[in-house]
Amino acid sequence: MKRIILLGSILLLTCACSVNYDLVIDENENIEESISIQAENESESQQLYSDPWPIKAYYSDPDSGDYPEKLEGVEYYDNEVVLDKNYYKKNLTHISNIQKFEDINSIKSCYEHFYVTSDSKNNTYTLSTSPEFLCFLDYPSLNEVNIKIHVANTVTSSNASSRDGNTYEWKITKDNYQTSGIILTFQKQEMKESEEKKTESPNIMWAFGVLGIFFVIIIGIFLYKIKKNL
Fold it and tell me: Which residues contact 12 (CB under 8 A, 6 or more apart)?
């Protein structure tokens, strides 16, 4: 029941809508979330337009209670409602970082478990959830959820259903929600910097080597001319 209360403002109980969830993790491990909820009929459209409730960003923060008001000290999603294809669409955005992301409300409201695991040995982070996307149980009218995660640093492994460059996608429907857990492992920033330094070092050594040979040749020519003039 707690999950329904927390997510009630994101996915309306009567909403036969589709949700696009976009996550961008930049090279400094800052994280930007964008959630788009598209209404598919006039009734849903009006519900999205008139919904007054603020949506908290972090799962463990207190709820607003019985009134749609923001609490002091609690972070909320930026909330915008726009007209799109004759129906209203709700856009939610929030900026976080890798250290706080394990408590993010959007993912924790739909999965029983969500972890951000740091591996110091391999210099990676892993985002992982439990297998079942529970929001399909809480909201039977939900049609489809598309999750896209774009990672600036190198991704070493994932269980994404598709990939386009550095963007990894999971498409969750009523047919596969029970086996739609997310696993994504990517390099930390320090690993990327270390690899760049490794790449730079041979180039610098090569440059010094060429420069050294050049000076040896110049000195050799100079000494040859001096000897010839003696």
Answer: 44, 47, 48, 51, 139
* 3-state SS, one letter per residue, for 28-54: CCEEEEEEEEECCCHHHHHHHHHCCCC
Q: Are residues 53 and 120 in the same domain?
A: yes
Q: How far apart are CA 36 and CA 91, in angstroms?
A: 5
* Number of structural domains the chain divides into: 2
Are 136 and 193 found together in one domain? no
Residue type, 53: W
Domain of residue 16: give its range: 2-187
Tell whether 162 and 205 lie within a shared domain: no
pTM here? Answer: 0.76
The residues, any chain, with a CB within 8 Å of residue 69's CB and separated by 6 or more, are: 54
| Separation of alpha carbons 129 and 142, rounded Å | 20
Residue 219: pLDDT band (50, 70, 90) is: low
